[in-house]
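Handout, section B. The chain below has 91 residues.
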Amino acid sequence: MTIEENAFGAELRRRRTAAGKSLGELAEEVHCSRSFLSRIETGQRRVTSELAQLCDERLDARGALLALVPDPSFERISKTVGVRGSGPESW
């Protein structure tokens, strides 16, 4: 998992607990299992943009959770062209 994915999970947990929702309650609201949502919060699973959107709406995050979702197209492009870094040392 990347730092961004861990950041999403940590922020999701922070907002969920601040809203007074249990893991099971939020999981039911966003139509996924409690264990799957737990794995996202702990960085063991990747969040989809669709699930992030639902969580953002249910927790009234106003886009803050969506902003933490890693762009999957960048990862795909990076693997294809072998991008490792952006500085001169990686050229």
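Note. The two ends are 25 Å apart (CA to CA). Compare this with the example in section A.
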